[in-house]
Amino acid sequence: MTEDVLTELATAITKAHEALKRELAKLRTGRANSGMLDGIRVDYYGQSTPLSQMASIGVPEARMLTVKPWEKNQVQAIERAIRESDLGFNPQVDGDLIRVPIPPLSEQRRRELAKLAKRAGEDCKVAIRKGRHEAIDMLSDLKSEGEISEDEQERAKKKVEEVVSQGVGVVDQLVAAREKDILEV
After folding, report:
1. pTM of the predicted model as reported, rounded to 2 decimal places
2. If 0-12 CB within 10 Å is exposed, 13-18 middle and 19+ buried, where does residue 82 land?
3. How far apart are CA 145 and CA 77, in angstroms?
4. What distance in Å separates the CA atoms of residue 5 and residue 94, rounded to the nearest whole number?
5. Number of domains composing the chain
6. How many CB atoms lie under 10 A from the CB of residue 88?
7. Residue 182's pLDDT is what?
8. Residue 127 maps to which CATH number?
9. Both 137 and 179 in a single domain?
10. pLDDT digits (tens, 9 = 90+) for 63-114
11. How many other C-beta atoms lie within 10 A of the C-beta of residue 144?
């Protein structure tokens, strides 16, 4: 019984970590990566379509992205969508290829991005704590139903705390690594 509770908690923590990784990947560092354009949607024959479903995105160098649309007649729509996004990019059309130079980040913008990384980390910790609360509630329910003894409940609570502290440690490591990437000039 307690193993099920711990397994459920571990699953919840893993999901929180995955969500944090996705959020941190969206934060821009000084280097180009194809994930920077993940949030861009293009008007494709009246449908709002993710850019990744309309073009291949490459990273030829550290400060440059290339976007090669699969349909040549969509170059202008893709270029417009990148320009109008809130990423601050200025794409340049080169035939049927779109080059997106990545401007260097100012020190102030780096600090803002580091704060966003910390906020994402705190949101992840909140999700982990919520999982801990639910796990402890489940253990209390099991004890009140007579399925586990009080000693088993206490041992399981200690295990829950260990799993949660490991999960929070991973969050701190992920956020610290991303902050280092962001603040690196």
Report:
1. 0.72
2. buried
3. 61
4. 56
5. 2
6. 11
7. 82
8. 1.10.132.20
9. yes
10. 899 999 998 888 999 999 988 887 778 899 988 899 999 888 788 888 888 8
11. 10
